Amino acid sequence: MGMGDYLNIYPAELKFQFELRKQSTCSLQLTNKTDRYIAFKVKTTNPKKYCVRPNAGVVLPNSTCNVIVTMQAPREAPPDMQPKDKFLIQSTIAPDGSTSKDLSPELFNMEAGKVINELKLRVVYVPANPPSPVPEESEEGSPPRALNENETKVSSLSQAVSRSLEEPKEKLASSEAWSLISRLTEEKGSAVQQNQKLRQELEAVRKELNKSKAGGFSVLFVVLVGLLGILLGYFIRKR
Q1: Suppose 117 and one of 4, 13, 106, 109 were both cysteines; which one would form an S-S bond, judging by CB atoms 3.0 to 4.6 Å apart?
Q2: Distance CA 215, CA 220 (A)
Q3: What is the pTM of this model?
Q4: Mean pLDDT of 185-209
């Protein structure tokens, strides 16, 4: 914990989880250990790389203020992962009842009779994926501790394989369902065509029956006329 005459600052260094093309944040706690209003201001050697909120403010007596520092997504890693960026936190006594809106740049000017405390903080990068430690053997020659991690990885891998095997089954079931739907649709269309064909044939049969009925009536008429003619001839002959 960084100690100042006005503020206790924690932590003493800014640790950022370093990962290319990803932002990272770190928080600072500024604790006012006095009975006065303490104004603070946060500066950095690389303002384009870091965003500080709030970068200035007032800490009330015996209270704490949180400051969030956001590091922009890095495009490349520094040599040996040792950044040269640093932060400076200035603090001084502010008039009672002051707020962040009342602060002016002149408040932090070095003048005679004014006390301004300054604390420098360095930046530390923590790898997002640190290398796994070398497995150690126990005194009795038991398997290394890393075996538990390997077993966990194997279990995760087997679960992933099971999921990958289940996915083709689901896809196969879906394919079979679509095939069944397509076959039923074709059978329905074929049944409709056969129904229409049967109706057409039935209509043709009805027409043929009507024609035959019409033809039967004509023959019967002719036969009756013939019989009448024979009967009339027979009566005429008798006379």
Answers
A1: 4
A2: 9
A3: 0.53
A4: 77
